[in-house]
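User: Sequence in, structure out. Go.
Assistant: Echoing your sequence, followed by the structure tokens.
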Amino acid sequence: MPHETLPTDYLPAERLGLEEILAISREIAGSPAAASLAVLPLSIAIVNSTRQIVYANERFAALAGAETVEAVLGKRPGEALGCLHAFEKEGGCGTTRFCQYCGAASAIVKSLSGKRATQECAINRKNVTELDALNLQVWASPLHQGEHRLVLNSIIDIAHEKALRSFERIFFHDILNAVAGIKGIHELITLELPQRHQDDLDLLRRAIDDIQDIVETQKDFLAVEASEYERAFTALDSRDTLGYLASYCQSFSPGASRTVMVDPQAPSLRFSSDPRIIQRILVNMVKNALEASQPGETVTLGCTAETDGNLTLWVHNAAVLDEETRMRLFQKGFSTKGAGRGFGAYSMRLFARQCLGGEVDFESSEEHGTRFFLRLPA
């Protein structure tokens, strides 16, 4: 039975005695699932209705800094992991005013009511000499062992992932600020230098714009993969969009050895979408088409109004994709251009699906060449 009532600022403080905890632990250890839980590449901690640990695997014990699994039994998660707030009140983990903002506590409470929950949990803990911090992702699932109402917590340390995302944001912020500064210097130089330097200044400006586009494309790619991209739809015209992209992409062909043009039959259609993402996708298509084309060949941009009201934007070139490329093109990491490449086609489909609710696909044959499609919903 739970021990005497203790004051709390959030969750009940009552606990079961160690003998009762060990009895539940023995039941779990004797179940068929115990062997599987022991070898999972996750930290596992099962808690009872008073939020005390009744089972843990060795990975959780290692995360807690405990020498043995038995050392964490009977403790609550925050106590086992050394949370600073877990020892502020006599009732322990879950009973302080800070605990109501704890992701792990929130997930456990939800699971005790019969629902699965996923939460991030940040824990500050102090060892002998310094402050330490844990960033955890906690998956909590309701579980029953005989008459006992339990919660199975699967835990991974996401500190590295959180730090990486923070460093990425700082990097993108700083480098885009640097590019903006270079643009400002370019504008000042343009005002000072004679007109005979204009062609060189135009080349410099295009190079600066290319650097900015490369950085912003990578920034958008990472944001979309992390489901953090905020799309911005606006009214667009298909002919205007294709005309701008054809003019922009012509600079990718040195000496204009290959031509980028808009299909004369392309209709002028009004639609709503995110122009930034459309440019990301179509520019990638055009770059790939130019790389696959021979000197003197043409890359054509066009659009089609589908019978179901959807809109298709496309890019065509005369080259033909080999069978392996056709089969593997959208695999993340696959590339015909060498090691370290292979995110272009994958990113096109990722952008289309995640940001536009559309689809990217292609057709390639000896008779018709290769045509990439961006299909957009009505």
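User: And one key feature?
Assistant: The chain has three domains: 18-157, 161-214, 234-376.
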